[in-house]
Specification:
37% helix, 10 strands, four-stranded antiparallel beta sheet, six-stranded mixed beta sheet, alpha/beta
């Protein structure tokens, strides 16, 4: 589902060039749930931005389901991202002027699904995360855990091939994170959605199929022994 080859990205800081990703390679199969861990500033969010086409690589390639995202221009990258990728962010990124169902439905409308079909699909997505009864609530009336479950419903409502999650439990306490994880992990497993998530949360990493550690610009797979020790 996701193939990354010799991906490079650097940023200029004054006179200094900071190399964030250096000939990074990765292969992620369809339906896999993969966690990427690493220290702050190691390039985890940069990697997600390159995979989705939000950012442009200096060199290398990213292919999603056989399509080379890095070869696309604008607006092709935007259209691809809108149709085939879902996002879950640390700070939810819900639109406060829209109610819960409208936040979820917006993704469908941007992809050309409107009217009753969009309403029914958005309500079904909310039911899947246990929030059908809050469909017409204001988003600022929800708890942090509920807002993140709305974000998960929004990310999955258009049946994306790939779900990218950037610190999805980073703004939640342990108890609330425990409520969100079944929605994130269970629904992606149930639907066969490939999940790539960056996290500092060991509990989330332990639930992944594989853990990759980002160090010195490259990904290193955590061995089964290391994974067992982390448990």
């Amino acid at each position: 589902m996701l193939s990354i080859r010799r991906l490079c990205r650097s940023f200029r800081e004054g006179e200094r060039v900071h190399r964030v990703l250096e000939s990074l390679d990765a292969e992620i199969g369809a339906g896999e749930r993969v966690a990427v861990m690493g220290r702050s500033g190691s390039g985890k969010s940069t990697l997600l931005n390159l995979v989705s086409g939000i950012d442009r690589a200096d060199s290398g390639s990213v292919c999603v389901d056989g399509l080379e995202v890095t070869a696309l221009g604008e607006p092709e990258r935007t259209l691809f991202r809108r149709a085939h990728i879902g996002f879950v962010y640390q700070f939810f990124n819900l639109i406060p002027t829209l109610d819960v169902a409208e936040n979820v439905r917006l993704v469908l409308e941007l992809n050309g699904v409107r009217g009753r079909a969009a309403l029914e699909r958005s309500l079904a997505a909310l039911a899947a995360v246990g929030l059908r009864a809050r469909a017409h609530s204001a988003v600022d009336a929800l708890s942090g855990g509920e807002q993140q479950r709305v974000a998960i419903a929004r990310a999955l409502v258009h049946a994306p091939k790939l779900l990218l999650a950037d610190e999805p439990t980073g703004n939640l306490d342990d108890a609330t994170a425990g409520e969100v994880l079944p929605a994130l992990l269970g629904l992606t497993r149930e639907r066969g959605t490939t999940l790539l998530m960056v996290t500092h949360d060991e509990a989330l990493a332990r639930a992944a199929d594989r853990v990759l550690e980002l160090r010195e610009g490259r990904l290193h797979e955590r061995s089964p022994a290391q994974q067992a020790a982390a448990r």
